[in-house]
Design a protein that fits this description.
185 residues; single chain; flat; two-stranded antiparallel ribbon; Four Helix Bundle (Hemerythrin (Met), subunit A); DinB family protein; DinB/YfiT-like; mainly alpha; MST-like
Length: 185
């Protein structure tokens, strides 16, 4: 018996996909958004959904499983890290400095243990922090506006958020494959 999971996907139409297109929550039936802000928000939404899809169906131990020692990265750690990152982005907007959710540097990954209560808290934290950052940015619809002490353009912050989720969605692909062999788009 091997410790390496066999590769699989539940997709039936295209064997290299995560799910069939008809069941993909990111599918917009080919309708692209109107406008730059709407496009940025659509891309962010899709990467957020991708991360959640990669975590779907796993138990606490699987979500906390680390892939390549000495890395502390896990799917659960990614959820916690992105909650922490969403919180930090509000500081970039000029808001008050907020305490870390999980403690000092790397505590988001180090504390990602296979406990159902830790998993539930991570999902709640991520949703809460996403909503708070979304609300703060919704009050700034002018993509040219510069905010915070660094005078960052609102557009740059939106792009940075997409970049952060996209990079970690790539990590999530590999982490999920290590857990149970599931692969796909």
């Amino acid at each position: 018996m091997s410790d390496v999971p066999s590769r699989w996907t539940p997709a039936t139409i295209y064997p290299d996909m995560w799910v069939d297109p008809a069941h993909d929550p990111r599918n917009t039936d080919g309708v692209s958004p109107d406008g730059e802000l709407e496009t940025l928000l659509d891309m962010l939404r899709d990467y957020r959904l991708t991360l959640l899809m990669k975590c779907d169906g796993l138990d606490a131990e699987q979500l906390a499983r680390r892939s390549v020692p000495p890395s502390t990265m896990s799917l659960l750690g990614l959820l916690r890290h992105l909650a922490e990152t969403e919180r930090d982005w509000r500081t970039w907007l000029g808001g008050p400095s907020l305490d870390k959710l999980y403690g000092p540097h790397d505590a988001d990954f180090d504390g990602a243990v296979g406990d159902p209560a830790v998993v539930d808290a991570a999902y709640r934290d991520l949703e809460r922090e996403q909503l708070a950052t979304d609300a703060a940015l919704a009050a700034l619809p002018d993509l040219w506006e510069r905010v915070g002490s660094d005078r960052i353009a609102v557009r740059e912050l939106h792009v940075h958020r997409i970049d952060e989720y996209a990079r970690h969605a790539g990590h999530a692909d590999l982490l999920r494959e290590c857990v149970d062999g599931r692969v796909g788009q």
